[in-house]
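Below is a filled-in request sheet from our internal design queue. Each sheet records the structural input a requester submitted and the sequence that came back. We keep these sheets so that new team members can see what a complete request looks like end to end.

REQUESTER: design group, bay 2
PRIORITY: normal
MODE: inverse folding
CHAIN LENGTH: 294
BACKBONE (tokenized):
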């Protein structure tokens, strides 16, 4: 079963276009959502949350549309923003009195437990909180109403590395339950190296990758070797190729071909997620994998 399904979504604005977007977010996994700034990631999240409407297509959350069951679906979603959209003159106590009625399964005791765990004072005004404290408050809110799907839009943006790691550890530990699903959009790719199981990558308004991360990293390889060995046929086997006098770097699905031809004179390694995004972003050869229908 999929936690989220986008089917043939189109959306056009002056800054960008989303062209026939389809992808799946599998239930029970952490799915990373990546792409360069301004490519439409936040817009897609807003469409998933029913804050804006696509021009065409359908969005399903747990096999339902927001139009058919908005209240029931939103009860199942914990939404963590990069910014805390609450009146900073409020205390946490005041904020809870505003938030709790929106959720049929709000758990006050659990919320207080998270506040204690995160060292967040219940009766202090939010304007006195650091950026890290505000993010932890967002997490506490999202985790306190029995949600099954957690949508995180740049959750570690603006945090220093120590707090960022702490927030990621919290997310990873709290969402270890295989019945819960996470969809996390971030430009800090190293965050995904720690927690992601699945990857959705958008480039130029189209979905380029929509697969399990292990499958992606086993499929693609980075090949380094002597540029004099390259010919046009080998170049056609790459999605990205960077040539220098001293050597070349290539991203390919056909590392076995390079290995069979050149043996030990080439170096073959697995890419990181960041390598993969950079190389596919810069690459001139298009890669589009069929959408996973499972």
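RETURNED SEQUENCE:
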């Amino acid at each position: 079963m999929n936690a989220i399904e986008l089917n043939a979504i189109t959306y056009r604005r002056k800054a960008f276009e989303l062209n026939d977007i389809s992808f799946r977010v599998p239930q029970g996994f952490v799915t990373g959502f990546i792409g360069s700034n301004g490519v439409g990631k936040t817009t897609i999240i807003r469409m998933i949350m029913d804050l804006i409407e696509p021009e065409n297509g359908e969005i399903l959350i747990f096999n339902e549309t927001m139009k058919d069951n908005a209240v029931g679906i939103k009860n199942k979603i914990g939404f963590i923003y990069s910014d805390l959209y609450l009146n900073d003159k409020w205390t946490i106590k005041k904020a809870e009195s505003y938030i709790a009625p929106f959720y049929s399964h709000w758990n006050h005791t659990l919320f207080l437990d998270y506040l204690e765990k995160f060292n967040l004072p219940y009766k202090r005004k939010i304007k006195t909180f650091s950026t890290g404290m505000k993010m932890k408050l967002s997490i506490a809110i999202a985790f306190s109403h029995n949600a099954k799907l957690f949508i995180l839009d740049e959750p570690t943006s603006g945090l220093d590395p120590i707090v960022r790691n702490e927030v990621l550890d919290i997310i990873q530990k709290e969402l270890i339950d295989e019945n819960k699903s996470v969809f996390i959009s971030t430009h800090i790719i190293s965050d995904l190296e720690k927690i992601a199981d699945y990857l959705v990558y958008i480039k130029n308004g189209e979905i380029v990758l929509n697969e399990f991360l292990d499958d992606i990293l086993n499929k693609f390889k980075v090949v380094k070797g002597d540029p004099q060995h390259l010919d046009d046929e080998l170049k056609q086997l790459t999605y990205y190729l960077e040539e220098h006098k001293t050597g070349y770097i290539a991203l390919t699905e056909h590392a076995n071909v390079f290995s069979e031809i050149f043996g030990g004179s080439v170096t073959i390694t697995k890419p990181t997620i960041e390598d993969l995004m950079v190389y596919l972003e810069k690459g001139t050869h298009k890669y589009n994998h069929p959408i996973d229908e499972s």
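SHEET NOTES:
- The longest helix spans residues 161-174.
- The first strand starts at residue 2 and ends at 12.
FILED BY: M.R.
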